[in-house]
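Hey, quick one: can you model this chain's 3D structure?
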Amino acid sequence: EFDGYFFDANTNMQVSEMTITNCGTSKDLYNQERGAVDFYAARAAIKNITFAYVDIVNAQRHGVQLGGSNGYAVNNIVFNNASINGTGADGITTAVFTGTCRGYAAMAFAASGTTTFNNLTLSNISQSPPTYKTNQAYNLVVSTTQAVSVTSMSVSPTSASLAVGAAQQLAATVAPSNATNKNVAWSTSNANVATVNSSGLVTAVAAGSATITATTQDGGKTATSAITVTSSQAAGTISARKVSTAPTINGSLSETTWNLTQTVGKATIGTPNNTVTFGVMWDAANLYVGAKVLDANLFSDSPDAWNDDAVEVYIDANNNKLTSYDGADNQIIKGYNKAGVTTKVALSGLQHAWAAISGGYSVELAIPWSALGISAPAAGTTIGFDLGYDDDDNGGDRDSQGAWNGTVNNYASTAGFGSLTLSSTAAREASALAATDATAPTLSYWPTPVTQELNIAADGSYQQVEVFDMLGRVHYRDATLAGQTALRLDLSQLAAGVYLVRLQGEQQATQFRTVKN
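Sure thing. Here's the predicted structure for all 517 residues.
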């Protein structure tokens, strides 16, 4: 046992700003109880000591014990703004200096003197009342602030819809309003969709849903806010990322910087039945356009390119969206299985190509800025833009037509075009994960394209499913699939585009692409 300090000359000692944890005992070397802070006047009086901002946590017996022998006093002891959180931790109730008990906040058996507690905060005290003195002549003055427990909490707003990149400040309200400990911790159910910092600021990361939870430090009370994140890209707008190496214009779209995430889903003539996706990039010399058309019936037998299977690109270089073409506007038609290209106005230096792909064909264009009258393209430059396709399913004239944003009048009017803005962000290579398709015989999925829920029939061997965009960003993840054979993925919050679905099991991984309308 440590005998402590002998106060032979004790005049105005100061002790401040300390935390005392798991101290005190019910059985010292003399089988006696001791406080976490213990005064025992054995050889002389103990006096004139001031404690400030001392926190006693989880005292094994009493928080503060004041005693002695031979009639010595414990006098003029002052505790200012102290706290005692937990007494009687060792559970022993036998005592030498008191009757049967566990632990008091303050217990005094000194012969005489005064101890004063100013603004003492108490919580989890095992004895009630929290103080005790064996000698009623001892002056124990206690001014307490009893800890007030949290009973409930709420979060405002309870839900919010954010665009990618936007932020929302959440506010946590703890009840009662005079609760002692109002500290709150924040967490997110899906950091791939929305993150939250220590003060409740939510940042939208990617399209999808996430639940933000606030948890009180006192009592573990929780409240939530449902966050829905939507694509930051407004309808009819597209950003072209910048490339450092120009793609080879051969129609294959083999460069990994191509990200064909935009879907052409608007019918302008008939009932189109193709799946068409496209992407755009740029550098100082050219605007690059790539499109992929999935079509089971392909024809190239008409003298007019628009009456066969073809991709149409529309440019409004000055973005004035007139009801008729001016000198800055153009229409480019690149047909399936055609060596040439059709333009409304000749474009010097235009590069174009098509290629056969599994299930259809692809088209690739490099459109010189100089041919569009734009001498110095820069990040932030916006032009009018649209992309459509013609579909011929049985030879002769086309059967239907679709557009990304415009109308059947795109060939004569730029009013319905969307807007394409050059971005300073570098085009990133698509992840290796998204580079290939794979289909296992134990898996089927429907519908394609998907608008709300994607259904997957599997053999129960998969444990996790993830949905990636063509930039490799995760938009959906569920790691609780073990044993499931019928999966339903809610993709309603995803922006239109092409996505890769990957299922992972212990022995195999399967992935496939799907289109979200």
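One thing worth noting: The two ends are 76 Å apart (CA to CA).
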